[in-house]
Write a structure and sequence with these properties.
Number of domains: 2
Number of helices: 2
Radius of gyration: 28 Å
Strand order of the largest sheet: 1-2-3-6-7-11-12-15
CATH topology of the largest domain: Porin
Oligomer: single chain
Structural class: alpha+beta
Largest sheet: 8 strands, antiparallel, barrel
Number of strands: 15
Strand content: over 45%
CATH class of the largest domain: Mainly Beta
């Protein structure tokens, strides 16, 4: 019976505590936003999370990436990324082809593509100082690299017979005999014959953020990376001519410059 009379008071007290907690949370959020606005006015990068995408020009190819960042402290941010790249061999050189046919790369046996999933951190070395300044950000990432070899096909007219061939022991003589009338078979040929090559990668670099407003990401990134794969990768034939010798590789080192765009919240 006593509990019956006390129940309304207990419920009222619980509702009051819940209301106070909600009010406190609202005030804390407001204070946090005010602090972020103050930091922005001072030129500091202030955010909770950021997203970015970019185009990467590499010393041995090209790539695209998407990045998600979660701020951990005033200077540290955890990052998660997806990157799509292609590695090209330095001996690649286009030749042949006609007005109606694409030139081909003599001695090329495979295209090598990579899908990379990475985790890393960014560290703000120097804040902007003002809205027109430049923030200097260091970054490091590591993760898994999913490599895919796609056979490289060419159109050839050998002994009066038109063929579409890839490199193999049976066609090696035809494939490695230079013919200016040969042409590339095209990007769509060979996707059903992909070979999987798992690996890992490590990347480091410096990012210079020159965006006028802190809620936007506009940056140039310069960096280095290394990738290692479980099996050797053949991009070019072992010996393609007197002037070109290209053996298989498991490790790839490259530099890059990237143009990065995104948003902060």
């Amino acid at each position: 019976m006593i509990l019956f009379f006390l129940l309304p008071f207990v419920m009222t007290e619980a509702q009051e505590e819940k209301k106070n907690a909600a009010q406190l949370s609202k005030e804390e959020k407001k204070e946090r936003l005010n602090n972020m606005m103050k930091q922005e006015e001072e030129g500091n990068l202030a955010y909770v999370k950021q997203t970015g995408f970019g185009l990467q020009l590499r010393t041995n190819g090209y790539g695209l990436f998407f990045e998600l960042g979660r701020r951990r402290s005033q200077r540290f941010t955890n990052t998660y990324s997806i990157e799509i790249t292609e590695i090209k061999h330095p001996k690649e050189e286009k030749s042949g082809g006609t007005f109606f046919q694409a030139p081909y790369i003599f001695g090329k046996v495979n295209n090598f593509y990579q899908a990379k999933l990475g985790f890393g951190q960014q560290y703000i070395f120097g804040q902007k100082g003002n809205k027109n300044g430049i923030a200097v950000i260091g970054l490091a990432q590591a993760g898994i690299a999913l490599g895919f070899l796609k056979p490289y096909y060419i159109h050839t007219n050998s002994s009066g017979q038109e063929q579409t061939i890839r490199f193999s022991s049976s066609d090696s003589t035809v494939f490695l005999t230079y013919n200016p009338n040969n042409s590339a078979a095209g990007f769509t040929k060979g996707w059903k014959e992909l070979e999987f090559r798992p690996g890992i990668f490590v990347k480091t670099g410096l990012r210079f953020d020159f965006g006028r407003f802190n809620e936007s990401v506009q940056a140039i990134e310069i960096g280095l990376s290394v990738e290692g794969y479980s099996k050797e990768i053949n991009i070019m034939a072992p010996v393609t001519s007197d002037k070109t010798a290209a053996g298989p590789q498991r490790l790839f080192y490259q530099g890059h410059i990237a143009f990065v765009f995104g948003r902060r919240k």
